[in-house]
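Entry for the shared binder. Reason: the reviewer on the internal report wants the predicted structure included alongside the sequence.
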Amino acid sequence: MLFYVLPTLICFEQIPMLKILKNSFLTMVINPLPTFIMVIGTFGLGYLLFHFQALVPILSMSLFAFIVMMPARRAIETVQTKKSSGMIKIIRVRP
């Protein structure tokens, strides 16, 4: 879920933090393949940087951001497409 918090915050700027957490969780549940790609990419980057430690100051944060943001952006676009086409229905509970 934490992989999607920053991309959700960037895509939806004016919403409260609780909704950002809810949207990131739902995005993770609806799109398991991008989540799996992010996990594998993060571990692969960690393995690469462990063996080539001279690359840590140069590539660590930019590659991590790339590995997380690209699948997350596609997953968020998929959720928005499904929502606009009516495939996902939002159930509202009255307080």
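Summary line for the report: The chain has one domain: 2-82.
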